[in-house]
Specification:
Blueprint lengths: L1 E6 L3 E7 L5 E8 L5 H19 L4 E6 L2 E2 L6 E2 L11 H9 L3 E5 H12 L7 E7 L3 E7 L2 E2 L37 H5 L1 H12 L5 H9 L3 H25 L3 E5 L7 H13 L9 E3 L6 H7 L13
Parallel strand pairs: 1-4, 4-7, 8-11, 11-12
Antiparallel strand pairs: 1-2, 2-3, 5-6, 8-9, 9-10
Helix pairs in contact: 1-2, 3-9, 5-7, 6-7, 7-8
Length: about 300
Amino acid sequence: MRFGIDLGGTKIEIAALTPDGAIAHRERVQTPRDQYDNTIRTIRDLVLAAESKLGIKGSLGVGTPGALSLKTGLIKNANNTDLIGHPLDKDLAKELGRAVRVANDANCFTLSEASDGAGAQGHVVFGIIAGTGVGGGITVDKTVINGAHAITGEWGHNPLPAAGPDEKLTGPKCYCGKASCIETWCSGPAFEREYKTASGNALGAANIVALADKGDAVAQKVLSQLIDRFARSIASVVNILDPDAIVIGGGMSNIDAFYRQLPDLVAQYAFTTEGPVNVLKNMHGDSSGVRGAAWLWQEGDKAGLPP
């Protein structure tokens, strides 16, 4: 049995995966606030309770909003700041008596979709999480590529490519300290900001898309700008990675126009592609993160099993 944990800023979710990828158990609880030790104990208790209920022990993988530094072994770049500076994998291993694998949540999303989701037929898969922020991950033959500094796939903090006069480096400031990052133009809040600037009205992303579908000219213009920015940004990834599949997750993945327009538009911006780029909607929805965490261990990998 594989167990996965999706460790977010507001909730912790556990799922147990059978060998064929079915979810045998799933539970969500609130993430403890401002107390790292309580987070460790909460994860421990979720795992032990699930194992008791199912009558079987298993491996454990954890998806986090940050990453384990390959230099220090400590969590870095996490928007859940309680985790930063802690050896999450080692602390959980001590509590549970087994090795624990930890990966960035975007990597877990990508691994899930590459293992048995929308990108399962691909050799190289680029996963995109587009919602409050814009993240990404890369798998090759269903294995996560971490990189030398554990930042592989973080395309959201590249500058927006082919920026127009109103998109230059004087553009929106990003929490990373830079300006005009892709995330500041292609995230849900950025989409809502652009609509408010154009219309004077504050609406959520889903409502803006609904207006565009009904023929509202302002909403259509802002949605068209969003899709064009996504296409330019994805094309820069295609030029370097040339993935077999690009799978989109997160709240923005529900924009159906992405899958109608992005394949040809990305190909238009990319370097001599031979036909549309394979841009796909995720298959597993909000289960992908926790499923991908479970997939960090392969079936039969004894290293992650408790004695």
